[in-house]
Amino acid sequence: MLALAASVVMKWEGLKYETYLDPVGIPTVCYGHTGPEVKMGQKYTKAQCDAFLDEDMREANYYVNKCIPGVKPLGAEAALTSAVFNIGPKVVCGSTLQGYALAHNWPAACAELSKWKYSKGRVFKGLVLRRADERALCERGL
């Protein structure tokens, strides 16, 4: 499941070994890794990037399972893990999506992903497309 989530993240983030500013000005490196340790001007190796990705997927999945406990469809768990990586825990913790998932209304929960297309109050085409990919994965096999 983590590999499936990571494949979505890798597709949309790409791999960059040198720190850059994302579209809203956050220092980012590797496969979209952010955090206080990421500083402009730093460079990383493929091994370091792979380790960040593994750590990031495990952390994102932790929030998915914390806020939506129990058995989940494989595609849904992978899609939500990818979404948490990109958006943060709020997509599954305290959201309408969480309510649908807790009620086992997976079609409605997956549909909620399409609403998460804003950053800093603006719709980003890349987020619309990314959410469409995550939603398709989420709905697979329902």
Structure in words:
The protein has one domain (2-139): Lysozyme. The model has no long low-confidence stretch (mean pLDDT 96). The chain has 142 residues and is mostly helical. It has helices at 2-13, 46-67, 74-87, 96-102, 106-112, 125-139; strands at residues 16-21, 27-30, 118-119, 122-123. The chain is globular and about 45 Å long. It has a two-stranded antiparallel ribbon. Strands 3-4 form a two-stranded antiparallel ribbon.
What descriptors fit this protein?
mainly alpha; globular; 142 residues; single chain; 4 strands; Lysozyme; 6 helices
Domain count: the total is 1
What's the number of helices? 6
Report the sheet-strand fraction: 5-15%
- Report low-confidence residues grouped into runs of 5 or more: none
Apparent shape:
globular
Radius of gyration over alpha carbons? 15 Å
> What is the CATH architecture descriptor?
Orthogonal Bundle
Count of DSSP strands: 4
Q: SS-based structural class?
A: mainly alpha
**Name of the top-level CATH class:** Mainly Alpha
* Biggest pleated-sheet summary: 2 strands, antiparallel
Secondary-structure element string: HEEHHHHEEH
Strand line-up across the major sheet: 1-2
